[in-house]
Specification:
With about 160 residues, this protein is of the alpha+beta class.
Length: about 160
Amino acid sequence: MTVPYTLRTAEDAADREACFAVRKEVFVGEQGVSEDIEYDAYDAGATLHVLAVRDDGTPLGTGRLLHGADAAAKTGGDPGVGSLGRLAVIKEARGLGVGVALVGAIEDAARARGLTSVDLHAQTHALGFYERLGYVAYGEEFLDAGIDHRAMRKTL
């Protein structure tokens, strides 16, 4: 099954709300993450939020890119490394390439800003997804929002 969709940078309040609605459905609803920690100070200053939208307007997925000072705590302070985060795809759109497309768009945005690598904190069940996209895990497993994660990096 294919679902026609488009990717775009979230430019206005309605797009941001669509991004947050996807994250709420996936992280808060499915995974039990508290809303208090799902939405953070980085949301307002993120370099960009990317949104995947089905042709009928239904939001399917989202992700964000941080770089510079906002990414420093997640990337070891290297100014050439961006931080991909909050990647979420609603259940009905999984397996359709939406997540791969979102990661690609975020990597393209990182390249356009002169970044040389992208880091992310992957839930351990998603390690294989990111490995297929060229990310390499490093460091020890850690808990974030009560969920096991590993840090991963891809050189662009």
